[in-house]
């Protein structure tokens, strides 16, 4: 096989390897071998020890064996960033539960912070739904225009009552969300 053909085959193999192993290391990272940094990034992202198997699989396609000990040491340092009350809260504010990679007595505090973040997120989603409902009511009221008969007057009154209930609930939820705006 010519050097040009071998190079083309290698490039194709690397491309296939990258496609086969999403969310893991690239061919360059496998070859570069900075497993402490890769482990740190994985720890900071809250990835479990089992995540290393994805890296092994991706690198095996290139004939490279990852340095598990360096990765574990880096991951442990990265977990110190992941396993903080502020991060637990921030993860929750995105609507996600904290991964179960944190240990020690602070886990209860982390779970509480995460639950507060999740509550903040849930309230925000409810407010968003209610705002959409309020906009729908406004559109219906605009479409109805000036009532032409008793039926339209009744419909308009009911829509206005519902609009008032919706706006009141939005206000109540906005106040409640303030209570969850910090970890």
Describe this structure in words.
This protein has 183 residues and is an all-alpha fold. The protein is built from eight helices and no strands. The protein has helices at 3-20, 27-32, 35-44, 52-60, 68-82, 85-93, 107-144, 150-179. The chain is elongated, with a radius of gyration of 27 Å.
Shape type: elongated
Termini separation comes to 61 Å
Relative helix content: over 70%
Largest sheet: none
Count of helical stretches: 8
Write down the Rg: 27 Å
How much β-strand is present in the residues? under 5%
By DSSP, the count of extended strands is 0
Question: pLDDT under 50 segments (min length 5)?
Answer: 2-22
Order of helices and strands: HHHHHHHH
How would you state the average pLDDT, rounded? 88
Question: Structural class from helices and strands?
Answer: mainly alpha
List keywords for this structure.
74% helix, 0% strand, single chain
Question: Summed up, what is this model?
Answer:
This protein is mainly α and 183 residues long.
Furnish the topology, listing elements before pairings.
Blueprint: H1 3-20, H2 27-32, H3 35-44, H4 52-60, H5 68-82, H6 85-93, H7 107-144, H8 150-179
């Amino acid at each position: 096989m010519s050097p040009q053909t071998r190079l083309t085959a290698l490039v194709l193999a690397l491309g296939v390897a990258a496609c086969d192993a999403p969310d893991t290391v690239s061919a360059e990272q496998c070859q570069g071998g900075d497993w402490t940094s890769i482990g740190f990034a994985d720890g900071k992202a809250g990835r479990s020890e089992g995540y290393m198997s994805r890296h092994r699989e991706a690198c095996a396609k290139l004939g490279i064996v990852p340095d598990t000990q360096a990765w574990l040491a880096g991951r442990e340092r990265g977990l110190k960033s992941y396993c903080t009350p502020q991060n637990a809260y921030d993860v929750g504010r995105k609507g996600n539960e904290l991964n179960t990679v944190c240990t020690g007595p602070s886990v209860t505090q982390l779970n509480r912070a995460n639950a507060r973040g999740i509550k903040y997120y849930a309230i925000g989603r409810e407010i968003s739904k209610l705002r959409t409902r309020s906009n729908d009511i406004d559109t219906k009221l605009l479409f109805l225009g000036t009532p032409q008969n008793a039926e339209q007057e009744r419909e308009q009154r009911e829509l206005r009552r519902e609009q008032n209930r919706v706006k009141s609930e939005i206000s109540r939820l906005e106040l409640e969300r303030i209570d969850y705006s910090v970890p």
